[in-house]
């Protein structure tokens, strides 16, 4: 097993996650099987109980792991399925060691950070690196490890010590350290300054780790004299110094690394030069360049409660981007704070109220994502009402689906006190109730989490058609509340349909209004499985409906009742295969590489 470690210095937010993801993509394109690990130095067991405004979104894995959003970047770039073991936190490591101590596994020894915590970290890395994540059996060839935080942070020290020991243990030919640092440009003099990176590398070397490669973040490419200076003072070869300068979108980062031959530097360190293929990134390059040239806009209003930090909805943003690029549309997102749509804002902050409603009324489509708690709920209900009454394409996810049900019950069924038991435990008409298997005493890891199966009840619904008329789909969940089964007959009799349910038929997974251009809600989170070139079907439906092309989308996905199945061809193109007839026979249509799923 080969290990590539990505660390960061000077400041946080430099893009270590995107860098690690890009490195994984390049190595995968060289013919290697790749996995990834994220190390988070915080004391939380996982990200599940952390505020999205403070830490960004909680990303959910197939196995129900609630993890850091960077694992979403790994999955999207490398097209892999990670596990909760691939996210190491200080809390997890200390919990593991303390549980062993309580059992007496250390045989009376004094339990210390060194060697017990550092040994546990190294064992965890080796164990997680061997877990298959690409659908094949056996371990990967290369494991990319991102060390969260910034060099010098006190909470990172045990991990840095562990990685120093680990590099010695596995050998220099199996360990490559890439240090991401900042090379700022002072506007006064216009000169690229190397001193912050010099000090960062000095601190790193003082902790026992020496970088093999420097990845320098800057507004523009590094000048040759700047590279020479960094090489001299950081003791890194010039050819091993690359620039990650500002790009139109992050899909260009793997291409930047390839252009600067970063993969060759990594392969030299890991002694893989002789067996690696030339990176095959033609399809990725076409997709990145095409994204920059899109000019026909599609405007989506995202009505949320965590809009202060856009990373709170990172997977939502990426899924919308994947779908809009697939439909050749330039994505424009209007982020609307749900509270600004409410009557309270009309009195307290009339300017914000007017601005929010102007954006909502001008949107081609509306998306209401998940969330917890009462704040902003009435604004989300108003957004759902506006979409339903004005025939604006609507996608509600998790809470967004539940509130669509509440809005319908209030304004169509004539139940003004209809509500979710989460928001009003005393409501006489609970449309959404607490799940019986949920915990009322513990928050962390107690929701309905991970991949669950949804069975389609009919092939006539838009949702079923978007999924290719399959009998079921597996999507990721994260919720404690569900639509009240007792309310379903009354809702259905008034025209509200539930085309997707769980295996029992009692848990509503998808809601839909048939007489609406596109009004769909999902209890699951389809954004977590969206990939560049393989957009989530429900997001594709929203973008298609918002741009007036839903019929075209449905025709392209399903022809003669068949399922679209892309597969690679040796000529560098992809072939769309329509399966039809009994027995099913393939009818093929070849189309360009950047049309990976939809032309």
Automatic annotation (TrEMBL):
- Which InterPro entries does the annotation name? Class_I_gatase-like, CTP_synthase, CTP_synthase_N, GATASE, GATase1_CTP_Synthase, P-loop_NTPase
Catalytic activity annotation: UTP + L-glutamine + ATP + H2O = CTP + L-glutamate + ADP + phosphate + 2 H(+)
Q: Chaperone among the record's keywords?
A: no
Q: Where is the Glutamine amidotransferase domain?
A: 309-543
Q: Where is the CTP synthase N-terminal domain?
A: 2-272
Query: What is the recorded function of this protein according to its Swiss-Prot or TrEMBL entry?
Result: Catalyzes the ATP-dependent amination of UTP to CTP with either L-glutamine or ammonia as the source of nitrogen.
Q: Which family does it belong to?
A: Belongs to the CTP synthase family.
Task: Report the protein name in the record.
Answer: CTP synthase
Q: What is the species listed in this Swiss-Prot or TrEMBL entry?
A: Raphanus sativus (Radish)
List the gene name: LOC108839685
